[in-house]
Amino acid sequence: MNAIRHFFFETAFGIAAVTFSDAPFRLKEVCLPRPTKTDILANMKRDRRGVETAHPMADRIAAMIADYFTGSRFSIPWDIMDTSDWTPSQAAVYRTVAQIPYGQVWSYGEVARLAGKPQAARFVGNCMAANPFPVFVPCHRVITSSGRLGGFGGGLDLKRKMLSLEGYPLDPAKS
To answer: What does pTM read for this prediction?
Structure first.
């Protein structure tokens, strides 16, 4: 079995990390920016922590994420993302969220409907809370039907910053 490893890197929004296995390379998790490595480790899933090490593919993914936090866009690297533990329903939700255009938002209910689960807005929320690939599966673009931001694993301040970076017009009364 492949060992799990992690790689820290700097972004314009703080220190972030990715976790991966390396033979072959499979991205396991994207850890959103935090002020310190200790903060990231505290939020990193224990079974995905592993040893800190560099890897050329981890460096490539880190560069994509760091570039995102300066306003760049990217193609989602589905081919290296480990989605093997997703159920078909989770996969439908995550792939639907991945289609939300840069700078736009969809509601939990809208995502549920488009994923073929029209009565499953709460399930969508649970998927977003467990999303292993934030930024690539842009859960920060999912909001409540009333236009409120809802939750976000990186905190609402980071969600606001990410939406603002993308040019989404935040309503101060709802954010």
So the answer is: 0.93
